[in-house]
C-alpha cells in the first residue's frame, strides 16, 4: 500500500511540471534473465524471457529526468532433477518509474520503484503445463537500478538493469519467494531531443 501511494504521489508531482518541461516518448524491448529467490535457500536456475513496451522520458532539468514505462515482462525460473525439468513462467505487466541522472556523453544512471501486476503464471513439468496464478500474489513491488546509453542524433539506446523484488510473491505461508533478475533492453525515443 505504501508503494502504491508513493507511485501516485510521484506521478501527481511530476504531472504539474510537464507543461514547463518536454517529454520524449518511445518504445523498448529486450532480454530478461530472471530467477525466483526462495527464503529456504533452494534457489532455482535463471530463466530467459523478454520484455516489451512503451516509455516516456521527462526532462526535469538538463541532467535529471523521470522515466515511467509500461512493460509486458516474461519472468520466472527453472530447475532440473532426476529426468524432470521444471519451469515456472510468470507474465507481468510492470510499471517502473525511474529517476535518471544524465551525463553529457549520452550515458545515464537510473534507479527507482516498480510495481508489477501478475497477468499469467504457469508451471511446466516436462511437457505438462499447469496454471498456478491462484497460488501467487497478484502484485509485485521491487526496486530497479541500472545504466543506459542513448545516441542523441538517432534516439536509439540500450540499457541494463537489475530488478530486486521486495514483496513475497508466494501465497503459501511455508516460505517466501522473490523475483530477482537482469534486463538488457534496446529502446527508441521518437523525435528525441535533449
Which characteristics define this entry?
194 residues, mainly beta, Porin, eight-stranded antiparallel beta barrel, 1 helix, 9 strands
Radius of gyration: 18 Å
Average pLDDT reading: 88
Number of domains: 1
Quick one: overall form? elongated
Strand order of the largest sheet: 1-2-3-4-5-7-8-9
CATH topology: Porin
Low-confidence stretches: 12-20
State which percent range the strand residues make up. Answer: over 45%
- List how many beta strands DSSP finds: 9
The percent range for helix content is under 10%
**Main pleated-sheet profile:** 8 strands, antiparallel, barrel
Tell me the span between the first and last alpha carbons.
35 Å
- In the CATH hierarchy, the architecture is Beta Barrel
Give the topology string: H per helix, E per strand.
Answer: HEEEEEEEEE
* Top-tier CATH class: Mainly Beta
Number of helical segments? 1
Content-based structural category: mainly beta
Describe the model.
- The protein has one helix and nine strands.
- With 194 residues, the protein is mostly beta strands.
- The protein has a single domain, classed as Porin.
- The protein has an eight-stranded antiparallel β-barrel.
- It is elongated, with a radius of gyration of 18 Å.
- It starts with a helix and ends in a 5-residue tail after the last strand.
Question: What's this, in brief?
Answer:
The protein has 194 residues and is mainly β. It has one helix and nine strands; from the N terminus they run H-E-E-E-E-E-E-E-E-E.
